[in-house]
Design brief:
mainly alpha, Four Helix Bundle (Hemerythrin (Met), subunit A), two-stranded antiparallel ribbon, 2 strands
Length: 131
Amino acid sequence: MNEEEPAFLEAEQVELLHRMSLERHGGQVGIRDRAAFDSAVMQPRNVWFYGQGDLFDVAAAYAFHVSQSQAFIDGNKRTGMSAALVFLEGNGVCVPEATDALYDAMIGIAERRMDRASVAALLRKVCRRSS
């Protein structure tokens, strides 16, 4: 990898994003499957350390795997996209306000119409690196 290792999100940070989402949008609190959650949060590291992509691919892994794992009782899609955007912002990428494209991507992941690579391509399109 040519780039410096990014600042990954820890499980506790993703759980905090989940709680914040539930406070704002409602839903039932709780993790349904801790092992699935832990696996989903580790997938972005695998993408990076096995040389499978750049920051946008790593962010897409947060969105995709947190959403697909269905580890939370409620709020999996919101938490997945929040984690992706917080990861990007924390690594020097400017992220947009919520857009229809981001919403549609999360629905696409949930309905299995969008894969991780498609999410990464969308994030590259709507986000930009800070100067």
